Amino acid sequence: MKFHSDLSLLDVDKLPQNVYDLNSSYFYVSLLPREMKLRFLSRLNPEARRAFSPILSITEEFVSEDECDCIIFPPCSPYMGFVEYMDNHSHTLSTTDKPVVAIYFSSDDSVYDVGSGIQLFRGGSYRSLNQDNVHGSLYVVADYYRGVLSPKELKVSFCGCSTNNNIRGEVLSVFENYDYFNSINRNMWGGDDRKDTADRDSYTIGPSDKNKREFVENMEDSLYSLVVRGKSNATYRFVESFMMGKIPLLIETDYMLPFDDIIPYETNMVIVPYGEDYDKALREFHNSHTEEELYNIQLENRSIWEKYFRADSAYYNVKSLLSKRML
Questions:
Q1: Are 326 and 70 in contact (CB under 8 A)?
Q2: Other CB atoms closer than 10 Å to residue 243's CB: what's the count?
Q3: Which of 160, 197, 271, 314 pairs with 287 at a CA distance of 20 to 30 A?
């Protein structure tokens, strides 16, 4: 399958430099000409560069519109609204008879009718309210896995901000009552203790080594990793849990999970609907598995990250999905 994009609409120098604002752009930047790809990577902060560097292994590139099977719109700004994003590409929509791929990753849970000719990848929103040509996109994260697996001890980690969504704050307040809960509560896992000469905080320049170490150790020390929505109905913690080889404890709020037709989420996560008894569901899962089974789930989850969620793997899985939908 071959893809085309109008690269004159893309200014690589204006793309974000951190993983949080780049998130779902991995498929698009994987197809850039190598010179542009290197330019893109050179501008990223160290954490983002670590997350996106696997795209260098992808040799496929955008082709001309005549040669392509479908057209991909450049990813939107994370602060751009969906209507504005689509309006920016209205001319292409009105003049092409090729299928279209759109990548929208603002913190927006609204539901949009994109029509049948567009395959939309987006973070957030709600599975039950979207058409089947709207897909949950994943967040690309840096790899900090050190091969540490947890024994059968009931421990749950969390690192993040409790105030960016009422649901998250409510869920965290419940878990704070349990001795097995180990949390680091701050604006972002990278912390805000690092500044550069331009007075940019760690959101832009990346987390300090100290905060990265705290994050890794927080997850390594626990068998389970609490995953609960943030500003939108999604969170980086979901993919980070698989990256670290942990078992996600997902507070289900009608998530649009990526690749949900091929990944065994039901067996490799604890999924508890929002508002139910989280502790009871967690203990039932925990007590129904042997230590060996829990070790194997951790290994499988790390393998899932490598096979589906790493930047290069994610590219090939999206390509496969689009081939099934469009060809």
A1: yes
A2: 24
A3: 160
**Alpha carbon distance 132, 257 (integer Å):** 13
- DSSP H or E run through 50: helix 46-52
* Residue 295 to residue 268: CA distance in whole angstroms: 11
Nearest CA to 226 among 255, 252, 203, 261?
A: 252
Rounded to whole angstroms, the maximal C-alpha distance in the chain is 61
Nearest to 302 by CA among 138, 123, 149: 149
Confidence grade of residue 212 (pLDDT, cut at 50, 70, 90): confident
| Separation between Cα atoms, residue 211 and residue 63, nearest integer Å | 42
pLDDT digits (tens, 9 = 90+) for 54-100: 999 999 999 999 999 999 999 887 788 899 999 989 999 999 999 99
From the number of C-beta atoms within 10 Å of its C-beta (0-12, 13-18, 19+), residue 146 rates as: exposed
Angle of helix 278-287 relative to helix 166-175, nearest 10 degrees, comes to 60
CA pair distance 251, 249, nearest whole angstrom: 7
Copy the structure tokens of residue 241: 């849990």
* Better-scored residue on pLDDT, 71 or 104: 71
Cβ atoms 104, 85 nearer than 8 A: yes
Number of H helices, E strands in the chain: 14, 10
Counting every residue written for the chain, the total comes to 327
Residue 35, CA distances (Å) to 5, 77, 244, 326 in order: 16, 22, 32, 29
Strand order, beta sheet including 70-72: 3-4, 70-72, 100-104, 118-122, 134-136
The Cα–Cα gap between 327 and 325 comes to: 6
157 contacts 246 by C-beta, under 8 angstroms: yes
What tokens appear for 251 in the block? 């507070």
> pLDDT digit string (tens) for 182-211?
998 765 544 555 554 444 555 677 777 888
